[in-house]
Specification:
Blueprint: H1 9-134, H2 139-166, H3 172-262, H4 283-362, E1 394-397, H5 406-415, E2 422-425, H6 428-472
Parallel strand pairs: 1-2
């Protein structure tokens, strides 16, 4: 006997209720997991941006300190350069005054020489007249005049010997040549100092550009900080809204279950529940993601800009250190030159006064080897300095006492005449040592350049690795 079993209405209602609850729970779990994943992702992004903000703040502080120190050092170098220029101007004015004084002394000496020559010519004519008159005088008178002339000649010979003993240790021509050489060296140092001043002016303009660029970077950093604060506020607001939605959903879930139970008559036993789609991303989430992406991109660009600025700052500091060393060396050389010029000037003045006094006493022309001459072919020698020909080599004469000036010669050749050869004249061992010093300096410069290139390459590799890590997140 066969029996047909029919499910009772109570069991059907219970099974439908369980399936509906399971669907609701799955839907709530999927929505909650999606929102939790979004919140975790936004938190990670916020933490990453916070770390980037901290690092950027540290870099900004370091850069501020570096720029402040560099500015102070630059001001010191600027003050030192101004003092050097004032000293050079003072030395130039002193040189012009010495030139005018030498010209006046020359004119005065020429005038005295002309007067002495005229006096000697009158004496010669007088003596010739006396000689003619002695032919008509008696023999006794002629002998008396002859004895007077012999005594005068003897006196003049003794006076000449005395003058030679006085001027034996004072070679005026040699002193004048030494003074002229010192003046030429001073003009060479003046041209080198002008080149240094021009380079310092270029560094000043570069410093102004770097300061302006730093100001713009600071504004960008402030805008980035403001945007990070907005992102943080948006994330907190979104978390509060999600928490409120979760609480409301927990309160509404029993009501929805009762409504489903009351409507079981409309659900067939074989029907399957309709799957629910996960919640779509809201416009605030899209805006937040876009803002985070823009902030991250801006942060990376800012880091690259700071890295480039740091390299330029390091190069500028190294160049400024080299300029400071050369300016210090030039100042010391100028002090030594002023001392030597003072000594030579005093010696020259003493010799000229001595020669003038002896000339006034004897009433004769000074000896040829004691006369002072000038070699200034152009009266405006100081105002119109000669400029080197770009197509001809630059001659350099090396002396034993100028060995300390070799770095200055090398720096001037690299700065002003980098494309021209140097014609080095001097003793063989000094020339070899000078060339070896230049080669060593060039080798050190190349090694430093290669080291900087390696550091830049390592920095670029580190930036690429950081970008890869960011993309991996």
């Amino acid at each position: 006997m066969n029996r047909n079993t029919t499910p009772s209405p109570a069991s059907t209602v219970v099974s439908l209720t369980d399936s509906r609850d399971s669907v609701t729970r799955r839907r709530d779990n999927m929505a909650a997991s999606t929102q939790t994943a979004q919140i975790d992702f936004l938190k990670r992004q916020l933490q990453s941006l916070t770390r980037a903000k901290t690092q950027t703040s540290k870099k900004c502080d370091d850069l501020f300190r570096d720029i402040s120190a560099w500015s102070e050092k630059f001001e010191k170098e600027k003050t030192r350069r101004t003092q050097s220029e004032e000293k050079l101007s003072k030395e130039r004015r002193a040189f012009i005054g010495l030139k005018k004084e030498m010209q006046e002394l020359k004119e005065k000496t020429d005038k005295e020489v002309r007067e002495v020559k005229s006096h000697l010519e009158n004496e010669r004519k007088k003596w010739m007249g006396q000689g003619l008159s002695t032919n008509r005088k008696p023999k006794g008178a002629v002998q008396a005049n002859t004895s007077n002339l012999q005594s005068r000649i003897k006196y003049l010979e003794e006076e000449n010997a005395r003058l030679e003993m006085l001027t034996k240790h004072h070679d005026c021509e040699k002193i004048y040549d030494d003074a002229q050489q010192q003046i030429d060296d001073a003009m060479t140092l003046l041209r080198a100092a002008e080149a240094e001043a021009e380079e310092l002016r270029y560094l000043e303009s570069a410093n102004e550009e770097l300061t302006e660029q730093h100001y713009f970077d600071t504004q960008k950093i402030e805008e980035l900080f403001d945007e990070l604060e907005c992102c943080r506020a948006t994330v907190e607001k979104l978390e509060e809204e999600i928490a409120a939605a979760d609480e409301q959903r927990g309160l509404e879930s029993p009501v929805s279950s009762n409504s489903d139970i009351s409507d079981v008559s409309d659900i067939s036993p074989g029907a399957s529940p309709t799957p629910t789609e996960p919640l779509d991303e809201t416009s605030e989430t899209d805006y937040l993601r876009q803002s985070l992406h823009d902030a991250e991109t801006e942060n990376e660009n800012l880091i690259r800009a700071f890295a480039k600025l740091s390299h330029e700052h390091c190069d500028t500091m190294a160049e400024l250190d080299r300029f400071s060393e050369h300016v210090t060396f030039l100042t010391n050389a100028n002090l030594d030159l002023e001392a030597r010029n003072d000594v030579l000037e005093s010696q020259l003045e003493t010799a000229i006064q001595l020669l003038r006094a002896t000339t006034e006493e004897t009433g004769q022309d000074p000896p040829a080897h004691h006369r002072t001459h000038t070699t200034f072919s152009d009266p405006d020698f100081v105002d119109d300095l000669p400029t080197p020909d770009r197509d001809s080599p630059i001659p350099i004469t090396i002396r034993l006492y100028e060995k300390r000036d070799w770095p200055l010669l090398y720096h001037v050749q690299r700065t002003l005449f980098g494309t021209l050869p140097l014609q080095v004249d001097g003793p063989l061992h000094l020339v070899r040592e000078f060339v070896a010093t230049m080669k060593i300096s060039e080798h050190e410069f190349q090694e430093m350049k290669e080291r900087v290139e390696k550091l830049e390459g390592a920095f670029a590799v580190g930036v690429q690795e950081v970008e890869k890590l960011k993309k991996g997140r």
